[in-house]
Amino acid sequence: MNSLPTLRPSLFATCLVDALFPQIGQATLKVLTRQGLKPEIPSSQVCCGQSLFKAGHVEAARRVARAWVRAFSGATAIVSPSGSCVAHVRHNLPDLLEPWPELAAQARDLAARTFELSQFVFRVIGLEATGAAAPSQPWTYHPSCGLHRSLGEDEAPYRLLDGLNGLARLELPDAERCCGFGGPFSVTHPEISSRLLTDKLSAAREAGAEVLVVGDVGCFMHLSCGAAQSDPDLRLIHLSQALAGEEA
Amino acid sequence: MAKRLMPVSESGRAKALAGFTGRLRQLRESGFNDPKVINDFRERARAAKLEYLSRPEHYLSMLADRVEAGGGRVHFAADAAEACQQIKGICQKAGASQVVKGKSMTCEEIDLNPALEAAGMQVSETDLGEFIIQLAGEPPFHILGPAMHKTRYEVADLFSKHFEPVSSEPADLTALARKVLRRRFLEAEVGITGVNAIACDTGTLAVITNEGNGRFCSTVPRVHVAVMGLEKAVPTLHDLAVISSLLPRAALGWPVSSYVSWISAAAGVAHGAGPEEFHLVILDNGRSQALAGPYWEILLCLRCSSCLNYCPVYTTAGGHNYGWVYAGPMGSVLTPLLRGEPGDERLSQASTLCGRCKEKCPMGIDLPGMLLKRRQEEAPPLQRLMPRLAAEMLSKRGLFESACRLAKPMVAALSRLDDEHLPPGPWRGWRQGRSLPNITGSTLVGSIRHRKGPENG
Predict the structure, then answer these.
(1) In this complex, do A196 and B447 lie within 8 Å of one another by their Cβ atoms?
(2) What number is the average pLDDT over the span A46-63?
(3) How much is the ipTM here?
(4) Chain A contact for B294, CB < 8 A?
(5) B337-371 b/e with 16+ CB inside 10 Å = b?
(6) How wide is the angle at C-alpha A229 spanned by C-alphas A228 and A232, nearest 5°?
(7) Which chain B residue shows the shortest CA-CA distance from A66?
(8) A56, B377: Cβ pair inside 8 Å?
(9) Binding-face residues of B in 399-418 toward A, CB within 8 A
């Protein structure tokens, strides 16, 4: 892309990263600056409202969506470490803002400029590798449902992960199976949710992994809080951290 | 009322569930995996069903004409009670003391067997799985494998109790079932089957099985009764071919099932080739109303079981947990529409919305979209405290940062409490198998802003 030097993508951290996982936001910035980009961090940014929307609270999600569009208005490109949040921005925000035609038009415009990190690096910048080192211990990847199915991005994360220098990715058995998070599902159906969680951690062990790279932020929270109880030796990192060469 | 779903508790049963659904996924992936073929089937099958559903009255009257022109009878049933009444009437008129049945989810839906038994008839399920759960007095656990949760030892106990002592060898069990059923097939006055699909232009119905019992039920007894939900029709015989071929592909990865019977029963009655009487019972039971509402797309469902086999929740919870005859994602959409007991709509919560069911549905039904819609209908209004607070907190940067600061000591306090002392709240559910996340009290965006000064961003 020839406009690359002037491209200043805005970081959409997401509420979970903002409040709980600053390391994921820092890793996202690191991946971008490493390619010579100068990311901006819009300081009035808020949540996209995905969790409220999925719990069925449409009106609440509408309010949050309105604030999100205002916070990011004018951005040339928006990059986020969460595929499910990007899917929400792309697929649901324009419809949610239909009552306000101007905001809806802005939302449609922003939706087309919003990318999940691996997608941005692979499709927009056009890179096959981030130049970072792979984890130094055997590792595998859990592809999140939000990134792979909702957003339909099934290529970028794999291409970039397989482009890391060093140890090759191990295949995760039944990788496409959900980790059991599902937002409100994790607390409305805790028994099934945590069963699915331990299934996922066991699958990583079955693959022979010491490090589990997780594709989305919600799954990362779920799996790392679960591993803290049932498999504290398994190290969990987010996709952005793997692409930044952290934990290498 | 549907209760909250729980994992299958017994470890043998959990293993059987994982094994059975895993095998079905494997079969499907090895035999039905070419995206172009899948897409082609999906488009043709959807087009056929959509055409039918766009003018159901037109097509159903065409279907009724074809069936009756050939000497068959058509009965429209508004609900389960009427359908049972009609079928009971047919059986009584035929002087039936014994009835044999092919596997039919629609008959499970209307709870037909008790209605016939109350009228003094002996009703025998003839699909091996249905035969087993009928003896056990249970609803089906899975659409394709109604008795998949039973070990061979449990089956041997059941058979020994009801018939004669038998070993737990699968071949012995099958031989005994065959011996018992063979006599009943020959003695029954009425055979009842379901309908996998039916062509309106010729009145030809498809019964697709793996055991041949459907063909036995529809040919040997003097009277054949076929029971269908009104969504099962397609316009033409050509469409019937598409559905007959898609169903086994989606279910088992097979291009064709072991037994595919296309029965132009009406033609058979007229020409003396089939049973002496043929009756087609067309059940509404909430379907017309569903067709007019936001969940109409579920009427495209073929009952192939793909959404069950790929669902992380179904494969952990199993069938009985869903509280009625339909389970998995399709059940969670269908049960509130067809049964509609208070609380059934809560099945919409029993999903992670991971989207795998939609991806694997041979008809491309947006199951997660419909579950989400149901959640939205059931959600409390914005005036209620929780959504209002959440909307405020998440849409205002300042409030969000204050909430993070406040959350720090709160989460720390909650983390120190053991499970029995946790106050009510979402953390109770979360703490089952998961620690509460660490919270620093500051935010990423806030700390970058402080570091760089207010002019940045």
Answers:
(1) no
(2) 96
(3) 0.95
(4) no
(5) bbbeeeebbbbbbbbbbbbbbbbbbbbbbbbbbbb
(6) 45
(7) B395
(8) yes
(9) 400, 404, 407
